[in-house]
Design goal:
Layout: E1 8-11, H1 19-27, E2 32-34, H2 39-42, H3 44-52, E3 60-65, E4 67-70, E5 73-76, H4 80-94, E6 100-104, H5 115-133, E7 140-144, E8 163-167, H6 174-186, E9 194-197, H7 208-211, H8 227-234, E10 243-247, H9 251-260, H10 267-283
Parallel strand pairs: 1-2, 1-10, 2-3, 3-6, 6-7, 7-8, 8-9, 9-10
Antiparallel strand pairs: 4-5
């Protein structure tokens, strides 16, 4: 069994929810998992409990609320009563209180900078914060796929989340990176309170990783480090995050990602890459 490494969170977005990946994660020193109320066709929590209910106390567990079933599909809502009900059901289905509950992609329901949108976001944040206060979860946060529309809504009247989770990595885009950092700065969050997700832009097997060599962003020596490993390691610096949630059903792949954390990123090259992203954005036609 490897020593625990809190920098990796096993994401269960596309997981098959097999017991094997849970036990392998623990053996590899990964004891944090992240899921959501709407994953796995709204059955993620029951599937996770079925795969290893007795294992769940050994994990630090986060989940998300914000999407709800409706007419055979998912709809987004920030209604505080619906959010509360989802947190309560999550407790029942998991057989325990989650350590953290994220407000899931709130930008889906607050896509303007109006005072009404700000009020809607504030009420939703307060509902999840109240769930934490009432012992239904250990803490609360915001998970945002596109935080750009949130930066204009956040002020001192909104509750302060314990964690923010955002897209990270070489494919995140400069506008997403800057918006994520702006939110973290506003709430005065430490690096370990800002998490990354989707470090490969959707897939670690897409052809891009056979053409791009992310090892340029890793300090030498990096012999034996693969492009996928280098891309994963670089994600911790774009933006600067303390943890990265990454999904896999392969214990060997998870082990490779853990091994990548032995290497150090090249700060100057990451800064140069960010400058290139900014320049490209400026050159793009309106």
């Amino acid at each position: 069994m490897r020593e625990r490494d809190p920098r990796i969170v096993l994401g269960l977005h596309r997981s098959r929810y097999e017991r094997r990946i849970l036990t392998s994660a623990l053996d590899l020193g990964v004891d944090s998992i992240d899921t959501s109320f709407n994953y796995h066709g709204f059955s993620a929590h029951t599937a996770l409990a079925a795969a290893g209910r007795e294992l769940l106390p050994r994990f630090w567990l986060s989940t998300k609320v914000g999407f709800f079933p409706a007419a055979g599909q998912a709809e987004h809502s920030l209604d505080p009563a619906h959010l509360r009900e989802a947190v309560e059901q999550s407790n029942r289905d998991l057989g325990r209180a989650p350590d953290l509950v994220f407000l899931h992609n709130p930008e889906r329901s607050v896509n303007s900078s109006s005072s009404a949108a700000q009020d809607r976001l504030g009420v939703a944040c307060a509902a999840v914060e109240r769930a934490a206060t009432d012992g239904l979860c250990g803490g609360w946060g915001i998970a945002s796929w596109d935080p750009r529309s949130l930066t204009g809504l956040v002020d001192r009247t909104l509750p302060r989340p314990d964690v923010i989770m955002v897209r990270a990595g070489l494919l995140a885009g400069i506008d997403v990176l800057e918006a994520s950092e702006a939110l973290a700065t506003h709430w005065d969050l430490a690096p370990d309170q800002l998490w990354g997700m989707s470090p490969f832009g959707g897939s670690a097997t897409q052809p891009l990783w056979g053409k791009l060599d992310p090892r340029m962003f890793i300090q030498a020596p990096h012999d034996g480090l693969s492009a996928v490993q280098a891309a994963f390691r670089a994600a911790y610096g774009l933006p600067r995050v303390g943890r990265v949630a990454v999904g896999t059903d392969s214990p060997s792949h998870l082990g490779e990602l853990i091994d990548a954390l032995r290497y150090e990123v090249h700060p100057a090259r990451l800064c140069a890459y960010r400058r290139l992203l900014c320049e490209q954005q400026v050159r793009q036609p309106l």
